[in-house]
């Protein structure tokens, strides 16, 4: 990928970060800590749905670009998107992980988000990096506009207002993604639908198992806190700190898709290793710079901005997770690019087990801070596993 693509990816990620920050500020000011906790829990449900949908309609399409025409993936992918919206939400509610009262919202919004992700991956596979980036930032901007209209234009200060604004932003973004996906190259009729499904499943199951486990590692604390004695308010505090953590991943999240695409297309091991090492250095440097700023902000400033205190101690407890997570993202995308998805799944599973064990032990006594320390230890365990896998798979 060219340097201009890197700059465009980072710039759009920065704009998306600004939109996301504004959305969080609106939610916390209007809905409070408990409202933010409920919103975060609904968003976990959407992520569960997209986690299921990615088994056939996820990142594996980038790796399979060399074997399957991109347009041939559309029908199998969209069929699975519909099924996964229902199955993913039902599974989350049945296990007590998700709130039953928001079944329809999580299933419908998760389906729309899945459509956007699927088409974004197809565009990425077709090397249309800028269109991929635009879809990411467009949805955030539309959500912010919708919330401003609902909260202040219509004076609707409810969870339903957020759900409606999110539905509008996802719907419009999905419509644009459909238009762009319709411009994909013509299908090679030599590939039957069942052959496409078999290949998508063969590679998607390994890749998406890791992605789903990673999502659960990142978000399980929100559900654990919401159902604990600390309640939705603690979940709201943790969600603000975790969004801050994700903000620190501005550079690695911009570079990771480029690492994936570059690695998948490069056959020379030394060239792809050198490129990924450079991306890893940029990711760690960018994250560290933002981390220093975040840990120095006093809690009074967070309280002034969001309307409640207790956020800064959680941010500091998540600081190790920021650096380990940045490195893990780059290495995981490199491993995906060479088809070693099983390593991502294994290390994400190890991280999830670590998180659940420690969060159940530390959350009852320490609340959101205990959950944050559990997340940092889990990130360290996962990063160590990925480093070993990366060395084993690419050693010369």
Give your account of this protein's structure.
The protein is an all-alpha fold. Helices cover 85% and strands 0% of the residues. It has 14 helices and no strands. Helix 9 (250-265) runs parallel beside helix 13 (319-337). It is globular. The mean pLDDT is 90.
**Which structural category fits the helices and strands?**
mainly alpha
Q: How would you sum up the global shape? A: globular
Query: What is the H-and-E element order?
Result: HHHHHHHHHHHHHH
Helix content: over 70%
Strand content: under 5%
- Computed Rg: 20 Å
Number of strands: 0
Largest sheet: none
Average pLDDT, rounded to a whole number, is 90
Taking the alpha carbons of the first and last residues, their distance comes to 24 Å
Q: Provide the low-confidence segments as ranges.
A: none
* Number of separate helices: 14
Keywords, separated by commas or semicolons:
396 residues, mainly alpha, 14 helices, 85% helix
Chart the SSEs and their pairings.
Elements: H1 3-57, H2 60-63, H3 74-94, H4 103-125, H5 129-153, H6 159-181, H7 193-226, H8 231-248, H9 250-265, H10 269-296, H11 299-306, H12 311-317, H13 319-337, H14 341-394
Provide a brief overview of the structure:
Helices cover 85% and strands 0% of the residues. It has helices at 3-57, 60-63, 74-94, 103-125, 129-153, 159-181, 193-226, 231-248, 250-265, 269-296, 299-306, 311-317, 319-337, 341-394.
């Amino acid at each position: 990928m060219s340097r201009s693509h890197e700059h465009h990816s980072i710039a759009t990620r920065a704009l998306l970060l600004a939109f996301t920050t504004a959305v969080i500020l609106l939610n916390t000011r209007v809905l409070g800590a408990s409202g933010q906790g409920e919103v975060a829990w609904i968003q976990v449900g959407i992520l569960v749905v997209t986690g299921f949908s990615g088994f056939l309609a996820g990142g594996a399409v980038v790796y399979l670009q060399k074997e399957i025409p991109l347009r041939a993936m559309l029908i199998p992918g969209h069929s699975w998107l519909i099924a996964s919206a229902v199955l993913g939400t039902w599974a989350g509610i049945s296990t007590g992980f998700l709130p039953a009262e928001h079944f329809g919202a999580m299933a419908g919004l998760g389906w729309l988000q899945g459509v956007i992700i699927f088409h974004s991956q197809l565009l990425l596979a077709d090397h249309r990096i800028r269109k991929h980036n635009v879809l990411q930032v467009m949805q955030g901007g539309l959500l912010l506009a919708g919330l401003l209209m609902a909260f202040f234009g219509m004076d609707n200060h409810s969870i339903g207002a957020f759900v409606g604004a999110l539905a509008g932003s996802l719907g419009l973004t999905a419509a644009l993604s459909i238009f762009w996906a319709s411009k994909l190259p013509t299908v090679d009729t030599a590939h039957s639908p069942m052959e496409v499904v078999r290949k998508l499943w063969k590679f998607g199951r390994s890749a998406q198992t890791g992605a789903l486990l990673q999502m659960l590692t990142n978000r399980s604390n929100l559900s654990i806190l919401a159902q604990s004695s600390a309640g939705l308010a603690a979940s709201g505090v943790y969600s603000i700190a975790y969004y801050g953590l994700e903000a620190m991943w501005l550079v690695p999240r911009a570079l990771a898709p480029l690492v994936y695409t570059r690695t998948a297309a490069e056959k020379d091991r030394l060239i792809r290793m050198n490129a990924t090492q450079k991306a890893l250095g940029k990711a760690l440097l960018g994250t560290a710079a933002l981390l220093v700023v975040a840990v120095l902000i006093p809690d009074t400033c967070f309280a002034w901005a969001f309307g409640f205190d207790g956020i800064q101690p959680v941010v500091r407890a998540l600081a190790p997770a920021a650096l380990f997570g940045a490195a893990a993202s780059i290495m995981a995308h490199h491993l995906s690019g060479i088809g070693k998805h099983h390593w991502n799944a294994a290390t994400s599973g190890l991280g999830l087990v670590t998180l659940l064990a420690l969060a159940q032990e530390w959350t009852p006594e320490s609340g959101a801070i205990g959950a944050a320390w559990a997340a940092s230890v889990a990130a360290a365990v996962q990063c160590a596993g990925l480093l070993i896998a990366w060395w084993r798979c690419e050693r010369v």
